[in-house]
Task: structure prediction
Amino acid sequence: MKLLTFKGGVHPSHNKEATEHLPLEKANSPKVVYISMSQHIGAPCSPLVKVGDEVKVGQRIGEPQGFVSSPVHSSVSGKVKAIKMMTSPGGQMTQCVVIENDFTDEIFEEIKPYGKFEDLSSSAILEIVKNSGLVGMGGATFPTAVKLSPPKEKPIDTIILNGAECEPYLTADHRLMLETPEDVVEGLLAIMKALNVTKGYIGIEDNKPDCIKAVSKAAEGKAGVEVVGLRTKYPQGAEKQLIYACTKREVPSGGLPMDVGVVVNNVATAAQLAKTIRTGMPLIDRICTVTGSAVKNPKNLLIKIGTLYNEIIEECGGFSTPPYKVISGGPMMGISQFTLEVPSNKGSSGILCVTEDEVKPKETQNCMRCAKCVNICPAGLQPLFISAYSLNDDYEKAASYRALDCIECGSCSFICPSGRPLLQSIRVAKKEILAKRRKESK
Result:
């Protein structure tokens, strides 16, 4: 199999050995879940329930408040005990519906199988996607219904599923592809039908030969579906880089995948769609890798959405040693947590518990103009200049160096021998640039 790739990128240590061969385990159902009304990029949901209400598994409890939004459902049955603000894994405050689990697992009456996707119309599949609360489960949490609703002037001819899982340590998608490859393929076919597309790729890095074999077998005889091997390199799973690797199409600066006729989804998103069509159950649980040398028993867990991070870690025996950092996600793009009293959400693909030896920061020094960050930037940017202008509060100049094209992969910070805060300062620049543009547009 010819291996596909993109320009730039880095090669961090995989560190997947602790969990890549561990089968999925179903986590214990928590006594209380904290369901965030903002588990997606876009407008938060408005609660549909009030304190004292009884809810059931799969019942909608959050109503979307905009086009870029997605409904939220209860992951347990029980009584609503509170509606309060809590810290999210991303660090923002988010409104949460607090539900005390009654452990009866009573399913909401309207939950019914939809049948086979082959028997559904394109519009029916899209409606299922909208109602199920499906979002990008690789961590980006972009509402899938929005991705599958491109404007008429942006015709789509190709669907790509991201099975790269290029972040170190994380193996949630690895186990998903290995244990339920049929769901991945069936979900891709459903997405293809929703957009009337005849070509679909499933891209998997070559450090997962078992997944390539399993998914290829599941895809045998499926018209238009092609499993492609990707050269193991970070950030191979980024949308624009994955599109280039599979199709050699380049998304223009400031553009979106639909500008080159492509829609990209994560393999977990596709598998969830297949599961929802088959059972009728919306998105209420997901796979989460809990790993790192500071956790006692690393695992790949199927968790109820709304379970607190500290309870998920306890499922793995707790800490073997005090952690230097607990990161939501992987070490490259993940976010360090200042508290573990945070509820898991649809994007909680991993919880990384690391010691100082694993992520010991480099001592920050002056930039030596080595250009390593320029050479490896997968977006073709000059991170050293964007960062420098950001640190000097010159956001207009940072914008002129295409700061908004940064995909925030962290490759520049990883490769920098001077330990410069490249990613962090570029993130600040992007937020300031976008905030200014929103203010001007009003």
